[in-house]
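Hi all, long-time lurker, first post. I run a small reading group and we've been trying to get comfortable going from sequence to structure in the token notation. Rather than ask abstract questions, I figured I'd post a concrete chain and ask someone more experienced to write out its structure so we can walk through it together at our next meeting. Sequence below, copied exactly:
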Amino acid sequence: MSEYDGQTYRPKYHEDLVHSEISLPPNAPKEYADRATLWNAVELSEKGQKSQLARMLKASLPNDWSYELAEEVVRDYVQRNFVDKGMCADWAIHDSENDKGQRNLHIHVLLTMRPITENGEWGAKTKKVYVLDENGERVPLIDKKTGQQKVDNRKQWKCQTVESTDWNSQENAKMWRKDLADTINATNEQLGIAVHWEHRSFKEQGIDKEPTIHIGAVANALERKGIQTERGNINREIIKSNMILEQAKAMLELAKQEVQSIRYSKIRSTATSVKNEVIEMIAKVRERKGRLDLPIVSGKHLRKISDRTALQSADNAEKFITTRKIDSFESLAKFTADTEQKYGQLDSVHLLKGQKLSRLKELSKMYALYEPYRTTYKESQSLKGFAKMKFDREHKESLAKYPEMRERLQNLLEQGEKITPKQWKAEIQSLQSEYDSISREKSKTATELAYAGIIGYNKKNLERELQNESRQRNRQPDRTKRKEEEI
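-- Answer (accepted) --
Happy to help. Here is the structure in token form:
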């Protein structure tokens, strides 16, 4: 709840919250991990009525990612682009759905505007610096009336206000968008998803197409109710003009699809010509229902897949079978057993690395809290006499808390382990890379097992349906015979 206006702010009703988290730089107070504490502190730090409290980013994610994968990728993205630069990041993953049933897995990121000083306080957004001439000398501030340098108890010099950080640079938006697109593309490549994300505008890509404009939440709500708005009309005109170009491209796209269809038909005909019983089963289910069935009770791997409609595609199932060179249900069972073993090994390694990574991060965070007190203590030990007495008096609270902070850090260390913050940081970077790589491999393996599970379920389901139909046909003559006897 905001202490400023007394309101509680929550996600929109049509957005399902998948995950939320606050990521903090090392020098931020640990209590900022609480959302209300963080943003109330931000509001208290601003005095101007028009002060900007935060910067918000919103971006889409691939709908066929699992929630677990999305969480890990976004956490890494937020850490690299914002938290490592000194910002506090309040981020969340949502899975919304519009009135047409179309999903949109996406993220919201709220970023603080002020840097945090070494003692955990909010720093200034801007600072004044002297204007220097070509020789690196300060430029005098000239009084327009006298033509002489202004003097007010002391000589005055020209100053200019500059940003204390580079966070407001317009180039950052492009860098953040590019990094997100690159991260998504790299992850998709690991998963075998042949979808490329592009961060550049149509103009930057050389595409002769006019982009629509952002209509905003208010206009969007009116449009959903059937009320036309000015910005909505602008978009409709843009869409209309773009359609002329799209119609010309559509013919070319149809031709490409036809070529692809012919090529895929050859693959399917080759597969069926060698009597692949799995392909034949999929074809029967396709003929009966148009798609594969999902189990009523989801298996452990199916639960990890967010876009389950892709698993119901008969085309995807056939591609899965042909690319894995599975030619029978016996080989499918062997593939499943081998892949389950692989997944188990990945899961064990993933858990161990995750535990080690969590411990190192906890050590690093604790050291970041401990280090300022350590510095104060060392400074006190280096002084003598009145200088030490004065320093100790000015830093009484920090010196008193130093033993507690050291003990808290020591309690996290294993027996004989030394305090090595630089080594911890290097290990964290190396482990994080390995952890993320294993996460992607786990997600890819889980997808394979989900496909295998769906195909196996449909085999049993088809056999059951065929048996029921056979019983019904056998019962029909018996009913006819009984009726004739009664007559």
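A couple of things your group might point at:
The radius of gyration is 32 Å.
The chain is about 55% helix and 10% strand.
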